[in-house]
Amino acid sequence: KRAELEGKLEAAILSNTKLTDQAASFQKAEVHATKLLSEKAAALEDAKSNITAMKEEHSSAMLKQSEELAELRNAKVDVDEVLTAAEECTALLENKLEAEQLAAAAVLADVTGRLESAIKSNT
Asked: What are the pLDDT digits (tens) for 67-106?
């Protein structure tokens, strides 16, 4: 009976050793898995941070572009107003030139007529 009990004790000790080894192996695997999860979590946080930064940069760039576009539109309105004023001035100057040319032609015709009359009366 003693030999039977010693055999059972030895089997129990072997089984306990095997289970202890498995537990140690599982603990090492758990530590490794925990380390990997921590690394992945840190990488995920970095990625989230990068995405947030890129969104903020994009938003800032879009705002800047919108402001620049508004400035360009305002500048175009100003240029259009200047061009319209320049066209109006050009039209006024053309009309004034035409009137002055007509007046000069009338004066020239009058002077020419007087000269011709003076020449005829002197001959």
From this structure: 999 999 999 999 999 999 999 999 999 999 999 999 999 9
SS3 content of the chain, % helix, strand, coil (to 5): 100, 0, 0
Residue 118 to residues 15, 76, 104, 108, 114, Cα–Cα distance (Å): 149, 61, 21, 15, 6
DSSP letters, the chain, are: -HHHHHHHHHHHHHHHHHHHHHHHHHHHHHHHHHHHHHHHHHHHHHHHHHHHHHHHHHHHHHHHHHHHHHHHHHHHHHHHHHHHHHHHHHHHHHHHHHHHHHHHHHHHHHHHHHHHHHHHHH-
pTM: 0.51
Q: Kindly report, residue by residue over 20-46, the tens digit of the pLDDT.
A: 999 999 999 999 999 999 999 999 999
Measured CA to CA, the distance from residue 61 to residue 58 in angstroms comes to 5
Cα 84 versus chain centre, distance: 33
